[in-house]
Write the C-alpha cells for this entry.
Amino acid sequence: MSDDPETARQIAELASDDRPLLVLDVDDVILEFIRPFPRFLEVRGYDLTFASFRLTGNVAEKATGRVAEQHEVHTLLDDFFAGQAEWQYLAEGVADTLRSLEERAEIVLLTAMPHKHRSARRAHLDQLGLRYPLLTTEMAKGPAVAKLRGDKGRPVAFVDDQPNNLISARGSVIDAHLFHLMADNSLRAFLPPLPDDLIVVQDWHEAAPKIAHALGI
C-alpha cells in the first residue's frame, strides 16, 4: 500500500505529540451519513434502496426507476459533500466521548474523500465544535495511520465503519486496536463476516470505555 502524498503533506503539518493516538473516520462514524444521504438524493430526484453494502447499484431515478451508473453516483456524492453542512449532523454520543478523551490522547480525524472537500468539512466540523486535526485521503488509510503514529511505539486505536479501512490499518500497524462502529447499524446485515481481531461496538456509549482501555488512559 502506498501513501497519498497530499495526506502525507497534511500529516507533516501536525505538531509532534507523544500521547496515545486515536484516529477516527468521519462519515457514518462522527457524522451521520446513511440517514441524511437518502434525503439528499430524494431532493435530487433519486431513491436509495440498499440491497448490498455499497452505493453503486442501489441509487435509482425516482421517475423512471433507472439505476444510476457509477459516475452519476460519484457526482451525487461530490454534490453532497460540497453541501454537507446542510445535511450531516453529529452521531449520538460522539461529542461527549471525544471530550472525555481529548486531554489524554491525540485525536485525529482521517476521512476518505476528495481533498477538494477538506475545507468544507473543516468548516462544518468547526461549526459543530469538533476542532481536532482533519486529514483527507484518496488512498488506503493504513499508511496514513502508520505515519501518524510515528516511530515512538505509542498505543493506537482506529475507528471506522468500513472493514476494508480497518484491514488496511492492520496491514500497516500490526498492534493497532481496531474498532468497527457504524452510526447507523441498519446496514450491518449486509456486511461479510468481520475479522476476529476487530472490536465491534454498537455506538459511542459502548465505544468510549473500550477505547480508553485500549489506549491505556
Notes: The longest strand covers residues 106-112. The helical segments are 5-12, 36-43, 70-82, 94-101, 118-127, 142-149, 163-172, 204-215.
